[in-house]
Design brief:
The structure holds two protein chains of two kinds.
Chain A lengths: L7 H7 L1 H12 L5 H25 L7 H21 L6 H22 L7 H32 L1 H9 L4 H26 L7 H8 L4 H34 L12
Helix pairs in contact in A: 2-3, 4-5, 4-6, 5-6, 5-10, 6-8, 6-10, 7-8, 8-10, 9-10
Chain B lengths: L8 E9 L4 E10 L4 E5 L6 H8 L7 E6 L2 E2 L5 H10 E4 L10 H8 L5 H10 L16 H13 L5 E5 L7 H13 L4 E6 L2 H7 L2 E6 L2 E4 L5
Parallel strand pairs in B: 3-8, 3-9, 6-7, 7-8
Antiparallel strand pairs in B: 1-2, 1-4, 4-5, 9-10
Helix pairs in contact in B: 3-5, 4-5
The chains are: A mainly alpha, B alpha/beta.
């Protein structure tokens, strides 16, 4: 098995590609050269720090405690990111943390509970990372859409409430739309996998010298994990948000303007 | 104190808002559960705010709203839903769901038969051919009549109407007013800024101004 290793020289050469992007930006006067440079440098520093920390966490000789601390930090950071990306969503950070915890519990529970992967730091950290990372995008999408639906379609929702429907019934069509919006990108990319693009985990494994068939098996498990985690996290965030949008006696929680 | 159980709605010391301007302030009012009562006032007088309290789409900040002697704030969530079916509401702008007219009527009653649906359309002067039409593609006046038919599908004893003809053409206004006159076994509380319409329709006129009742219409 041939492992691919990139030394400092290789890293420096690959940065030529950033230079190409920079030159194009300057020539075309796109005004993003500074952002490009910052993004490239920031990614390098962040990943080097993460790599050093991961080396501690995934060391088979270290206790799993480090892994769990890493997971908690990751979930908290993701919750904060949701709040930042969806400022109009009430209690976004808390809802994000709850939904990521739920999706991590479900997906890690299935994958490690049934022995698909061994419960080591080396397996838990990247899998939890993919769970939370993918859930984050979908959760932000779902949360923002739910809030938008509740504002834009308030007259229709209140018309249904006025007919004696429960809050859940009155909001159901809008919730369905919001969840579809959040789930469809993942479903579509799952359909196109292998035909239109080769997913990151599989590409990484193949580059690292793993047999492609073994890499595919891992990738399939990861894709199912992503679908499961997105469905779980968006459901949790939908449940929490819907509870906050309505009072217990089937009124909208905010008064109409 | 009067016997509030004998009335339809009784509002006692109702206040809504107050920062910076009260939407309703110190409202004491009885509204009968029969005939047509018009709530008249200029824009911002508090008419719609008052109407929403009666359907419990909003609650008052202070005071209480009674229906048949029961404080709406003490009703269970299920009782609130039952209350809304007895006291229907039609809004200023028609809000139809995607789908056919029949789909919209079945929001109010999922077991609604085609015969009952046709009868409801007849009550609001829409032909039976409307049943399968796309509700979103209808004119504003037709949509409002679909909304009225949808409200009537719950067999309400009273309908709260929040300026339902405000944005409609004269022909649609006439059709809806004719429906109100025809359905005399249903009580109406009809919000309007149009004093002439109030004169045409109402048995009793309540006037609001700046969130206060300036004429409870008891003398009419």
């Amino acid at each position: 098995m041939t492992h691919v290793q990139i030394g400092l020289g290789g890293l420096a050469i690959s940065s030529v590609l950033v230079g190409v992007a920079l030159v194009l930006s300057l020539v075309r006067q796109l005004g993003v050269a500074r952002d490009l440079l910052t993004a490239a440098l920031r990614a390098l520093v962040q990943l080097l720090v993460v790599g050093a920390a991961l080396a501690l966490v995934v060391d088979d000789n270290d206790p799993l405690l480090y892994t769990w601390i890493w997971l908690v930090a990751m979930v908290l950071f993701a919750g904060w990111t949701v709040k930042r990306r969806a400022p109009e969503v009430p209690n976004a950070a808390l809802l994000g943390v709850l939904s990521f915890t739920a999706s991590a519990a479900v997906t890690l529970g299935v994958l490690f509970g049934f022995g698909v992967f061994d419960p080591t730091g080396r397996a838990i950290v990247p899998i939890a990372g993919m769970t939370v990372g993918n859930s984050m995008t979908a959760t932000v999408l779902a949360a923002r859409r739910i809030v938008r639906e509740s504002v834009e379609h308030r007259p229709l929702i209140e018309a249904r409430l006025a007919l004696g429907l429960s809050a859940d019934e009155a909001f159901a069509p809008h919730l369905r739309e919001a969840l579809r919006t959040a789930l469809i990108p993942s479903i579509e990319s799952t359909k196109a996998v292998g035909i239109v693009f080769l997913p990151g985990a599989m590409t990484g494994l193949i580059l690292a010298g793993v047999d492609p068939v073994d890499a595919v098996r891992v990738q399939v498990a990861v894709m199912y994990l992503v679908l499961g985690s997105i469905a779980t996290s968006t459901s949790v965030v939908a449940l929490g948000l819907t509870r906050g949008l309505f009072t217990s006696d089937h009124r909208m929680a905010t008064r109409s303007s | 104190m009067q016997d509030i159980a004998s009335e339809g709605f009784v509002l006692a010391g109702v206040e809504v808002g107050g920062d910076p301007v009260a939407r309703l302030s110190g409202v004491d009012l009885s509204l009968p559960a029969h005939g047509v009562t018009a709530l008249v006032g200029r824009s911002g007088a508090g008419k719609s705010t008052l109407l929403r309290l009666l359907n419990r789409l909003d609650g008052p900040d202070r005071g209480a709203v009674y229906w048949r002697g029961r404080d709406l704030s003490t009703l269970s969530p299920d009782d609130i839903r039952r209350h809304r079916r007895r006291v229907g509401m039609v809004f200023q702008r028609p809000a139809v769901s995607p789908g056919s007219v029949l789909d919209n009527l079945r929001i109010a009653d999922r077991h609604l038969t085609n015969d009952r649906a046709r009868a409801l359309l007849d009550q609001v002067a829409l032909g039976v051919d409307f049943l399968d039409r796309d509700a979103s593609a209808l004119s504003g006046g037709e949509q409002q009549r679909v909304c009225l038919a949808r409200t009537l599908a719950t067999n309400p004893e009273l309908v709260l109407a929040d300026e339902p003809t405000a944005s409609l053409d004269p022909e649609a206004v006439a059709a809806i007013e004719a429906t109100v006159r025809r359905l005399r076994d249903v009580a109406w509380i009809w919000v309007t800024h149009d004093a002439e319409q109030a004169g045409r329709l109402a048995d009793r006129v309540v006037r609001l101004e700046g969130g206060r009742v300036i004429d409870a219409g008891n003398g009419q």
